[in-house]
Task: inverse folding
């Protein structure tokens, strides 16, 4: 399997589509850091609390923060690495040649998944390191222990999230025979989860629990909870909910109640363990989604007949 | 026996691709699996390699069961698929390197084998060129090199000459024969092109609708059966008598007064007597040797 991982990794890192997408992500990441640093200059007090993590989450102005950017575009990169993993081997006619070698059949799909994950890991880690490097220039002091610990956890979560999209891409590449249709399906799924589900959730919540400006607080609460429940079907929302407590140590949850209570409770940062607990259900949900998706791709591939014609 | 199969059956959805196939191939043979498209050749091959499971029946390849011990079989068997595909952006060398790595062949040994294999198939000069620039014939030869680097005991080649011009096909067939002679490899090749296979195969099996309809040495299958005679200046009476005789298969008038007669082994003396009695000139009398083509047609038209 090691052989396959290395080959696929080399293919990914050398491919043109990988280069273009990483370039886009890099440029936007750079911009958001630049804006983040400008934010520090306008509000010097912010430098006191976890300045490096702030670089990843805050975004003054119109551009999204690095976190929401990763949540939005990261999937595109992941899906693009996976969408033709299996069906292109069929169209090229390399399947039977490779599977006639003494390797287990699952070593191939596992190898492809791991190589994709490795590639995504390289991209995310290098971009985050780049951001921190730029931050070091601007701030003049290195990140401290708790910040690095949170960063490490964040990277793991990000990888699980991107792993979901990669597995989805591979699943489509098993289900659809032509790379073009699997690419379309993958992009459609991505659009659905990143854009449409947010609209749908809002519409459904407003229909079921209509609220007006003078509605009682309970109605607002129910509306908000319903919206969140629907959104939690989306891995994008799960990712944001799971990573916010990690990157924003004072964050205590998404519920309106927590937000309302905010003035009353102290806004001291939580320890890492407690922050993890806040996002734990979402994290587990994310992990489950990733596993289910990969398992489906795995089974589909193992049962697929090799015969092409 | 390096390959043994008994009562192989395979169903794809509702179609029986194989319907009770028996196959036995001895060490060091070149065995040709013949049949029209869709007769089950590729299915047979995929089952032998353990890439597809038979619905029923038993298989042994090199003493292993491909269903239960696929890796053992794949270590010993080299396979070239019908539409052999490569990673286009990688060079010929890199494509083969991937295969040797998958086989766990140590670096130095692998380099030596790849060099030898590319030399054998005449691709040494283009080893570093990406496969995307290769012609169909070059790809096919690279496919053979791909089998060679494994040094298999059994090479299974699915339609090795399909879509190649006659000259290229002849080269590939010569190469296959050389491999058998020099490396002692057993070769199983499938084809629907009879005249090519006829030249290099020790034995052939003709596959039709999922089972073997004929099998044997090429020489046996094409053994002479009776004679063909051409008779000039034949009278209508001679023609009538020949048509009535029980030792003739067919009597045809090729040109006015010229007959072509096919007859049984024992009918030769009779024919001479008839011609002597009724008048006529024997223009030609030769043993009838059917080509594989004729045998093929006999099974597939009937």
Result:
């Amino acid at each position: 399997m090691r052989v396959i991982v290395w080959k696929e990794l080399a293919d990914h890192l050398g491919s043109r589509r990988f280069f273009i997408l990483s370039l886009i992500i890099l440029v936007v990441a750079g911009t958001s850091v630049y804006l983040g640093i400008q934010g520090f200059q306008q509000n010097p007090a912010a430098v006191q609390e976890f300045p490096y993590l702030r670089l990843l989450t805050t975004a003054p102005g119109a551009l999204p923060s690095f976190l929401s950017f990763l949540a939005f575009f990261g999937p595109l990169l992941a899906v693009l690495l996976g969408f033709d993993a299996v069906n292109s081997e069929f169209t090229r006619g390399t399947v039977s040649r490779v599977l006639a070698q003494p390797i287990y059949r699952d070593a191939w799909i596992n190898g492809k998944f791991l190589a994709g994950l490795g590639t995504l890991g390289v991209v995310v880690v290098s971009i985050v390191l780049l951001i921190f490097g730029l931050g070091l220039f601007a701030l003049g002091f290195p990140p401290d222990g708790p910040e690095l610990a949170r960063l490490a956890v964040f990277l793991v979560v990000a990888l699980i999230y991107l792993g979901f999209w990669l597995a989805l891409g591979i699943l489509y590449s098993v289900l659809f025979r032509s790379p073009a249709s699997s690419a379309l399906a993958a992009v459609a799924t991505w659009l659905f989860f990143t854009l449409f589900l947010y609209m749908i959730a809002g519409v459904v919540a407003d229909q079921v629990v209509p609220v007006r400006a003078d509605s009682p607080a309970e109605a607002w609460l129910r509306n908000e909870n319903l919206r969140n429940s629907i959104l939690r079907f989306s891995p994008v929302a799960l990712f944001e909910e799971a990573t916010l407590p990690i990157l924003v140590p004072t964050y205590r949850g998404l519920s309106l109640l927590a937000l309302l209570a905010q003035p009353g409770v102290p806004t001291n940062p939580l320890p890492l363990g407690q922050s993890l607990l806040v996002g734990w259900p979402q994290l587990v949900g994310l992990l489950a989604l990733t596993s289910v998706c990969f398992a489906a791709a795995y089974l589909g591939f193992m049962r697929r007949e090799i015969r092409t014609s | 026996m390096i390959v043994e199969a008994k009562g192989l059956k395979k169903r794809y959805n509702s179609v029986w691709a194989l319907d009770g196939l028996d196959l036995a191939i001895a060490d060091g043979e070149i065995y040709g699996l013949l049949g029209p498209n869709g007769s089950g050749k590729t299915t047979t091959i995929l089952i032998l390699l353990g890439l597809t499971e038979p619905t029923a029946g038993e298989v042994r390849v090199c003493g292993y069961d491909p269903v239960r011990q696929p890796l053992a079989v794949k270590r010993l068997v080299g396979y070239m698929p019908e539409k052999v595909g490569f990673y286009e952006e990688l060079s010929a060398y890199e494509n083969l390197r991937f295969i040797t790595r998958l086989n766990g062949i140590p670096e130095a040994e692998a380099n030596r084998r790849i060099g030898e294999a590319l030399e054998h198939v005449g691709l040494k000069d283009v080893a570093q060129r990406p496969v995307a620039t290769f012609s169909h014939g070059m790809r096919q030869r690279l496919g053979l090199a791909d089998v060679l680097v494994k040094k298999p005991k059994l090479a299974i080649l699915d339609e090795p000459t399909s879509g190649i011009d006659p000259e290229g096909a002849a080269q590939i067939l010569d190469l296959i024969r050389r491999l058998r002679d020099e490396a002692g490899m057993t070769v199983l090749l499938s084809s629907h092109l009879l005249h090519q296979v006829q030249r290099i195969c020790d034995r052939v099996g003709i596959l039709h609708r999922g089972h073997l309809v004929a099998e044997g040495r090429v020489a046996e299958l094409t053994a002479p059966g009776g004679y063909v005679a051409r008779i000039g200046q034949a009278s209508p009476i001679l023609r009538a008598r020949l048509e009535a005789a029980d030792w003739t298969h067919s009597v045809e008038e090729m040109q006015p007064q010229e007959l072509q007669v096919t007859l049984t082994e024992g009918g030769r003396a009779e024919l001479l007597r008839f011609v002597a009695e009724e008048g006529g000139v024997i223009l030609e009398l030769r043993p009838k040797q059917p080509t594989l083509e004729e045998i093929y047609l006999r099974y597939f038209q009937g």
In short: The CA atoms of residues 160 and 287 of chain A lie 6 Å apart. The interface with chain B takes residues 3-4, 7, 11, 14, 92-104, 305-309 of chain A (CB under 8 Å).
